[in-house]
Amino acid sequence: MIVLAVFAVAGSLIGYTIADYLRARPPTVNFTAGHATGQPVNLTLQTVGAIGYGPTPNWVSYLTKSPSGKWVHTTVWKVPENTRINVTVYEYDSGSPLRNQAIGQVTGVQGGTATLNGKPFNLINSFQGNGVAHTFTMPALGISVPLYGVNGSAKTFCSTAAPCHQSALHNTIKFSFMSGNHPGEYRWQCFVPCGLATVDGNGGPMQAVGYMGGFMKVVA
Amino acid sequence: MKGMPSTPEGRRLNRKHLTRLVIPWAILVIIIEPFIWFVLRNHLPPGHMTDSATGIQFDEAVVTMTGSPIVLGVLMYFGYAVTVWRVPRNAPLEDGPPIRSNIAVQAAWIAITSTIVMSMFVFGTYELVVPAGSGGGEGPTPIWTPATHKILPIQVIGQQWRWTYRYPTFGGFETDALVIPNNTEIAFHVTSLDVIHDFWAYQLGVKADANPQVDNVAFTKTQHTGRFVVRCDELCGVWHGAMYNYGQVVTPSQFMAWATSTEKKLAPMTKTLPPVNYAGYTPSANGAAGGYYPAIDPFSKVEETAVPNGKAVEDTSALRRTNPSQRAGAGSTTTKTPTGTIKKPTTPPVTNTSGKVG
Amino acid sequence: MAISATASAGLGQTGGPAPGAASPARGSRLNVGTAFAGAVLGYLFGHWLGNAIVSGDLYEVAFNTSTNNVAIFLALLFGVVGWLAGIGALNYPIAKIMGKEAPAEIPEEGWARFLKFTLDHKVVGIQYVVGVLMFFFTGGLIAMAIRTELLNPTSHIFGPNIYIQLVSEHGSIMMMMATSIVVGPLGNFLVPLMIGSRRMAFPRVEALSFWVFISGLMVILTAFPLGGFQTGWTGYAPLQEQSSGGMDSYLMGFGVIGTGMILAGFNMAVSIITYRAPGMRWSRLPIFAWSMLGTAGLLTLATPVLFAGVYMGALDRTAQTALFVNAHGGSSFLWENLFWFFGHPEVYIMALPGFGIAAELLPVFTRKPLFAYRVGAAGMIGVGLLSFFVWQHHLFQSGINPDMRPMFMLTTELISIPTGFIYLVGMGTLWRAKIRLELPMLFVLALYFNFLFGGITGVYLSDVPINVQVHGSFFVMAHFHYTIMGGLVFAFFGGLYYWLPRMTGSMMNETLGRIHFWMMFIFFNLTFFPLFIVGLLGMPRRVFEYAPRLQTLNDISSISSYLLGFSFVVFTINLVWTQFISPKPAPPNPWNSKGLEWTMPTPLPFHNFSRIPVILSDPYRYGEPDALPVADFGEIAAATSSTHEGLAGAQPTSSGTEEV
């Protein structure tokens, strides 16, 4: 009987560990706490060419700035419904031509345009200039904004572990959208195949929540 | 021996059980078959938005009408057997009649199942060929095509993890929205930019795999206006479950208005797209930001990739050294010269056509 | 005596230790513990080797993705080799290669032999029971995790990353398990007993197949810490090339399991063909052995194709070949064809043993001869043959060979004819029978019930126009769960309740068994029947988000799946309690079967038969009071020694058999 009990306890512990491992997800940055109705939410993100630490140090990644001003390695946010979300993206990564040029289009944002370093735009031709590094796309809400790349050969290209410092070369992309009135978890992700050295560029970070895709949880 | 099959007693028992089974079965079949045809059929998925959807619905009804007597018969038989021929578990052991085979029953069984199977095959083939593939993917060169030449082609592009649609007859603009006209024969040219997807327009009764560098054509003819859902039906990675969007069947005039205005609106973007090529939309298998395979032929210094704006782009990404800090600007336009490549600093090629300032 | 035991043993059953050598003795020291140690050492060595090979700048893919596929493959490969060396599977071949005499393999007594490499088919059979149950329960827990995620259409418990890993692991583990769930435990244990043999044809191959099988489970489970794989059990390329490091575990796992399947199938086929006792004609072979023969043929012939496929996949992922990548001259269709050319026969690898068990058990509990035995045996072989000609029905919408769709529709629908034979056999046997609803019989009836729905929905899938609607949806998923779980797994548990008294000498508890059966039957149907509807209403497989209108049906399915899972807790308690803690000795022939396997004493002698029996009849002569016994162990021969010439070619009298 004691043997059975020991087995039961050991089994539960193993089960708990496995369940805990399986439940492990990137942390959620909460923008709902202390949020006044009608006020916009300011969402600040950055994209880095390599996260620089962890089991996969060379993966590209998004980072999120928490309301307390700390950069968090996550792509999951909680926002209130019917709220204007003002997004600022600091883009530190180099770009490339797009496999599908249609992704160069800005869609679904307030006013139809986003700004790149203060200059409004609604289309990037990725065959010119530095190309597109990443996109911010939330298909269910029809939102898509291409993020223009920086020159990867520049001396000030961010080469440190994430988060990158403002002194490194970067583009600032700003746009706004409404969070909608249907609570739920909305997928958002990058649509530039930026999973370096995977077939079609869509492996690795492109298939990992917390790197190049995540969820916006809209709550009532 | 009492109860032996070949005895008169055995034959009487056989007849008795057979009668008690067949008569209720026949009555139930007579009730069920009209029910399936007249009541159930019109509620079977996927509805009747297109001719292929209607065809699928019809086929489902026919197969159900063929199958339900069989299912019913077998279930009734097992139920009858367990009820009537059951012996209590604590009863003394007693053997049943040693019926090892019955040529008539076996031959009848084989004949009936073979007949049903062959009829199903003939019916299925007819239903596949006559409506030009029943909405299924027919490969790059379909041999069963619609009788009309007035077919609206739409290229369906699957990519990880969204669908986009190109309208070759409207300048080849590409959009997230799938809008199609009513009462029109439509050819979906389904292809993929990366892995295998599957274009499933549920209410349209259309399903075709999206293979990279393959043009998989599926035909359907719209019959009703309304909204339909498009889902990816072949596992394509982590976000497979989120790869869906909605389409709309509208009246032809609404469609023309939508298509012409969208064509105009998207013209700046369309200019950056490659010309419509049903099987060749895929660029290289290398990711835009660096791929698994070397992008460049090792025996030539530089590989040229034709792009719509006529410039050559060298994708250096795959040959980049591995230090992330050295991730060169792969998109930095480099123009090939006889002596090598010259990197020219560029200004962002951004466009703002809306005139508004965000 | 016409046929002495020694003479028949000489007919090809030499080689094992002498029958008298079954005295308690200590065999090899190697056991599962050393196997684990070998596996760990091999894994570490392979990992080191892989990192040494692709170190530095040579292989930037490994650097950029932070995944060294070469190291993973080599680690897993050497891990498996280390495991096999640790269990002692390599002792004999290595000794022979070195030109030395192989170490003595002394048969052991006691429970420790179950943890060792053993040549006794009965021990291997019981090892397999534990092995497949480990597989099955691991996969089942993962299935419940999948259903947990699907409780809500949009809120996520595991999230897409873990969800897709769970889906893929569940599929792979269950498919690996299902190929061996009957052939391994029941096949290895029972086939020699049923055909009157002292052992399988290749005992070392048999034992090797088991330990390879177990290492397959460990290999596929390493996918979790390696990042899982995103392809599902079908592993479609080029998604395969793109997946995380866990994909290597998938390819390696199926390679390993495939090796085990080929070995097990080959051994089974050779045993049935060449090791039948005198008088065991094809017309007297138990129908279960027929199903094993059909399955063994499929295992041997179909699995090499899978092996080729995973080998190519491994090359694509390590040596950067592009066999499955269209843009570089490969073909994504290639994997689909290789995989399904194996995959569809594999589906029947998972169906035939279930049919075999059902047909074997029916006569016992109906107290009637098996109806249309020849048709049943022909059905098994017919299904096996036809299954090689149907694989493209998985690719009806893929755009490959669209003009061939009617042909594959025909071959697919033709399979329903031999499958229908199984129903003919079942229904004919039930006709005017004396049905005793003992526990194993309940499982058999449940198989016929479930497989009816599995089979009839297969007709929808085979019809190309309807396939447009149901391909890749939950309808397919419910369909194959109805055939594999509803058919094979129900039959397996029925067979286990039926034959465990033979295998261990202890009966299972009847009450707990009935609770298990009814829970399993009811909640199996409640779990999977709603999924037919969900699929018809447009829910694709393997999605983590679905339409909110489908939530009710999904929730019914999910909650039922927990209760279905609980039914196996009842089973496990029953198994542990009645077989280990408080065994209740079984009567020598608890079901009053006429089968040859029930004629031997309990516990079974080490070499099964002290003298090879002469088979006089098939084992289904119920209701024939003047029929000959199934076999002659010498008694009849001794009593009628003057007429032994007639008995040597023993003809059963057919006086008791009559046509209707």
Question: How are the strands of the biggest sheet of chain B laid out side by side?
Answer: 4-3-2-6-9
- Mind telling me which CATH architecture of chain A this is? Sandwich
Average pLDDT taken over every residue of chain A = 86
Low-confidence stretches of chain B: 297-345
- CATH-derived topology of chain A: Immunoglobulin-like
The CATH architecture name of the largest domain in chain B reads Sandwich
Query: From the helix content, strand content and strand pairing of chain A, which structural class follows?
Result: mainly beta
Give the helix proportion of chain A (percent range): 10-25%
Total domain count of chain A: 1
Tell me about the largest β-sheet of chain B. 5 strands, mixed
Report mean pLDDT of chain B, rounded to a whole number: 80
Radius of gyration of chain A: 19 Å
Tell me the strand order in the biggest sheet of chain A: 4-3-2-6-12-7-8
Number of domains of chain B: 3
Q: Give the strand tally of chain B.
A: 14
Under CATH, the topology of the largest domain in chain B can be stated as: Immunoglobulin-like
> Can you say what the CATH homologous superfamily of chain A is?
Cupredoxins -  blue copper proteins
Q: Any idea of the CATH class of the largest domain in chain B?
A: Mainly Beta
As a percent range, the share of helical residues of chain B equals 25-40%
**Secondary structure tally: strands of chain A:** 14
Q: Care to describe what's here?
A:
The complex is a heterotrimer of chains A (220), B (358) and C (660). Chain A has 220 residues and is mainly β. Chain A has one domain (28-219): Cupredoxins -  blue copper proteins (Immunoglobulin-like), CATH 2.60.40. Helices cover 10% and strands 33% of the residues of chain A. Chain A is built from one helix and 14 strands; from the N terminus they run αββββββββββββββ. Chain A has one helix at 2-23; strands at residues 28-30, 41-48, 61-65, 71-72, 76-80, 84-91, 114-116, 119-121, 123-124, 132-138, 143-148, 171-178, 184-189, 213-219. Chain A has a seven-stranded mixed beta sheet with strand order 4-3-2-6-12-7-8, with no helix packed on it. A four-stranded mixed beta sheet of chain A has the order 1-5-14-13, with no helix packed on it. In chain A, strands 10-11 form a two-stranded antiparallel ribbon. In chain A, β7 (114-116) and β8 (119-121) form a beta hairpin. Helix content of chain B is 32%, strand content 20%. Residues 297-345 of chain B have low confidence and may be disordered. Chain B has helices spanning 8-40, 51-84, 103-129, 252-265, 267-271, and strands at 86-87, 151-159, 162-167, 173-175, 178-181, 185-192, 197-201, 206-210, 216-221, 226-232, 244-250, 334-337, 340-343, 350-351. Chain B has three domains: 8-85 and 104-131, no CATH class; 151-271, Cupredoxins -  blue copper proteins (Immunoglobulin-like, Sandwich); 284-344, no CATH class. With 358 residues, chain B is of the alpha+beta class. With 660 residues, chain C is mainly α. Among the domains of chain C are: 27-103 and 113-117, no CATH class; 120-346, Up-down Bundle (Cytochrome C Oxidase, Chain A). Helices cover 62% and strands 1% of the residues of chain C. Chain C has helices spanning 5-9, 32-53, 60-65, 69-87, 91-97, 121-149, 159-180, 183-195, 203-221, 239-242, 246-274, 287-318, 332-349, 352-366, 373-386, 405-414, 416-430, 439-462, 464-470, 474-504, 510-536, 551-581, 635-639, 644-648; strands at 435-436, 614-615, 631-632. Chain C has a two-stranded antiparallel ribbon. In chain C, α6 packs parallel to α9, α7 (159-180) runs antiparallel to α9 and α7 runs parallel beside α11 (246-274). The longest helix of chain C is centred in the middle third of the chain and has 32 residues, at 287-318. Chain C is globular. β1 (86-87) of chain B pairs parallel with β1 (435-436) of chain C, so a sheet runs across the interface.
